[in-house]
Write a structure and sequence with these properties.
Length: 356
C-alpha cells in the first residue's frame, strides 16, 4: 500500500482514518504544535498505533533543497516534493514597532509566508518566470500546508506565533480550488497551526467563475486580484487567460465576493516601464475600481533573462501612486523584498534548474 501524506487530512478525515478517533486531536497537536519529526516521538500514543501510523503515513512530504537569505531578512526556500519535483516558498519578516503597556517601544517581527499551490502554472503570463516552465502538477493540500510548517520549524518560530499566509508563490490557486480550500481549513484548525482564514489571502490572476466558487464556500479568506492592466487588449497580452475572463467579469465577481466589511480587496498592479506606467492607466483605474472598497498595491516588475520588459522608474511609480491617492484610492508601492535573491516567484527554482 502506498503511504499517504498525513498533512493531506483534515482533523475530521484523520479521525475517520484511525481508531480510536479521539487520537486525531493528539496527533494534530504533535504535528503542528509540537513539531514532531517522527511518529516515535508521539509518546502519549500506544506503541502499536505509532507503528501503524509509521506504516501508513508520510509525516513530512518536503525536503529543503535550497535556501537563500536576502540582506533584508527575506528567506526563499526551494522545496523538493516526494516525486522529486520542486517548488518554492518565501518567508517575509517585517519589523514592527509597538508600545507595550508601560509605553515602551518594543520591536517584533511580523511574519508572512508566501506559499505555492502548483508546480508551474497554466495561466502563462508573459511577465512571469513560473509560466516559462509550463504546468507540471497541482500541489496536494498537505504539500501546501507543509510549506508553512517546515518554514516555522526551520526558523525556530514558536508554534503559537501569529502569522499571515499569502497564496502568491508558484501557480494559480483557484486552478487548484479543492486542495486550496482544504489547505485553508487545515491551516485554520485550532488543534493545528491555528491560522485564521482572516489571516490568509488568496491571490488570483482572475478566474472569475472560480472567484465565485471560492466566495460560495464562505471560508472567510481575503482575495487579492492580479490586475496588472486596465484595458482588455493589454491585459490579454500580459495574461492570455484574460480572453476568457475579461476585466469586467472579474470586477463583477469581486463585487459578489463575501468580504469582511472592515477590510479591503487588494488589487495588485505589476508596473512595467512604458507598458502600463502612464497616467492614462491610473485614470482608468480610478473609474474601474469606483464602488469597490479597494487597496492598490503597485509592484515593481522584476526583470529576468530573456524578457524584454523593464523595471519602471521610481519617479513614474511614485507619480502613478500619487495620482491614485489624490483621487481617493488607497495605494501603496510594494518594496521589492529580497531583490538580491530574486524573490519574485519562480526565480530560485529556475536558477536551480539551470545548474543541473
Ligand atoms: N497566480 C497568482 C498567484 C501567484 S503569482 C496570481 O497571479 O495572482 C504571485 C505574484 O507574483 C503576482 O502578483 C505577480 O504579479 C508576481 N510576479 C510574477 N512575475 C513577477 C515579476 N517578474 N516581477 C515581479 N512580480 C512578479
Ligand atoms: Fe501563473 Fe500567477 Fe505567474 Fe500568471 S503570475 S503565470 S497566474 S503564477
Amino acid at each position: 500500500m502506498e503511504k499517504q501524506i498525513l498533512l493531506d487530512l483534515t482533523k475530521e478525515e484523520l479521525s475517520q482514518a484511525i481508531k480510536p478517533s479521539f487520537r486525531a486531536k493528539q496527533i494534530y497537536n504533535w504535528v503542528y504544535a509540537q513539531y514532531a519529526n517522527s511518529f516515535e516521538e508521539m509518546q502519549n500514543l500506544p506503541k502499536a498505533m505509532r507503528a501503524d501510523l509509521e506504516e501508513r503515513f508520510i509525516l513530512n512530504p518536503l525536503k529543503i533543497a535550497n535556501k537563500e537569505e536576502s540582506s533584508d531578512g527575506t528567506i526563499k526556500y526551494l522545496f523538493e516534493l516526494p516525486d522529486g519535483k520542486t517548488m518554492e516558498s518565501v518567508l517575509l519578516r517585517m519589523k514592527k514597532e509597538e508600545r507595550d503597556i508601560e509605553g515602551k517601544l518594543v520591536h517584533h517581527a511580523k511574519y508572512t509566508i508566501c506559499v505555492s499551490t502548483q508546480v508551474g502554472c497554466k495561466v502563462g503570463c508573459s511577465f512571469c518566470l513560473t509560466a516559462k516552465g509550463g504546468f507540471v502538477r497541482d500541489l496536494t493540500a498537505g504539500e501546501i500546508v507543509a510549506q508553512v510548517l517546515e518554514i516555522k520549524k526551520d526558523n525556530n518560530i514558536a508554534p503559537e506565533r501569529r502569522m499571515n499566509i499569502v497564496y502568491m508563490g508558484m501557480g494559480e490557486p483557484l486552478d487548484n480550488l479543492d486542495n486550496l480550500a482544504k489547505a485553508i481549513k487545515i491551516f485554520a484548525d485550532d488543534d493545528g497551526l491555528s491560522i485564521s482564514p482572516k489571516r490568509q489571502t488568496v491571490s488570483t490572476s482572475g478566474l472569475s467563475t472560480k472567484i465565485d466558487a471560492l466566495g460560495k464556500m464562505d471560508l472567510g479568506v481575503h482575495i487579492a486580484i492580479s490586475l496588472h492592466a486596465v484595458d482588455d487588449d493589454l491585459r490579454t497580452e500580459l495574461i492570455p487567460m484574460n480572453k476568457a475572463y475579461n476585466i469586467q467579469s472579474i470586477i463583477d465577481a469581486v463585487k459578489r465576493f463575501p468580504i469582511d466589511t472592515r477590510k479591503r480587496v487588494m488589487f495588485e498592479y505589476l508596473v512595467i516601464k512604458d507598458v502600463n506606467d502612464d497616467i492614462k492607466s491610473a485614470k482608468k483605474m480610478i473609474k474601474l475600481l469606483s464602488g469597490i472598497k479597494a487597496k492598490v498595491n503597485l509592484i515593481y516588475f522584476n526583470p529576468f533573462p530573456g524578457v524584454d520588459y523593464k523595471r519602471p522608474e521610481p519617479k513614474d511609480m511614485e507619480r502613478f501612486a500619487q495620482y491614485l491617492i489624490d483621487h481617493g484610492l488607497l495605494a501603496t508601492i510594494r518594496e521589492s523584498k529580497g531583490i538580491d535573491i530574486s524573490a519574485a516567484c519562480g526565480q530560485l527554482r529556475e536558477k536551480e534548474l539551470e545548474a543541473l
